[in-house]
Amino acid sequence: MPTLSRTSATANAASVNSSDLASRPPDREWHVAKQGLIAALEWQISEFASTTELACDSTIDLAPDCAAPEGTLAATAFHLFQEILNNVARHARATLVRIRIRLMPGLLQMDVTDNGVGAAPASLEGSPEHGIAGMRRRTGQCGGSLHIVSVPGGGTHVCLRLPLPPHGASA
């Protein structure tokens, strides 16, 4: 698969709290609707790196002739990705985040791995409307899966998989 982009960045910007990530820009959907999902994800990675001062190693791989999702599925994928990064910013205390996004026929997969403090498995669940439980619910509504492997003291790996409609079908 060809690599669309590879970014390694350590931000030098002033630190901001993680709630700023979710609040900028006022109309988050604009990035997905006007620029498309891939450009929106690239923008979010850049914003994340610059606002958190974390080193980000990111790769976006696009299979040939594979169209990114649009509409509701694209917006959901973008929001889930934002929430994954917000959780890294809020809880991980990481110094490095590796992001790999793959768009393949029938599947969008996002892997985010940090070298942070990790978490106990019981702490990964909570209110069904918020946090990881809410992310699992929204992922399930799209027919996808969300897998999280976290080891206390050993970082966290999140794998989000969303099925895509066949090329040419509406999302």
TrEMBL record:
GO terms for biological process: phosphorelay signal transduction system. Residues 1-26 are annotated as: Disordered. Pfam families: HATPase_c. Keywords: Kinase, Transferase, Two-component regulatory system. Residues 72-166 form the Histidine kinase/HSP90-like ATPase domain. GO terms for molecular function: kinase activity. The keyword Kinase applies. Residues 7-19 have a biased composition (Low complexity). This is Histidine kinase/DNA gyrase B/HSP90-like ATPase. It comes from Paucimonas lemoignei (Pseudomonas lemoignei).
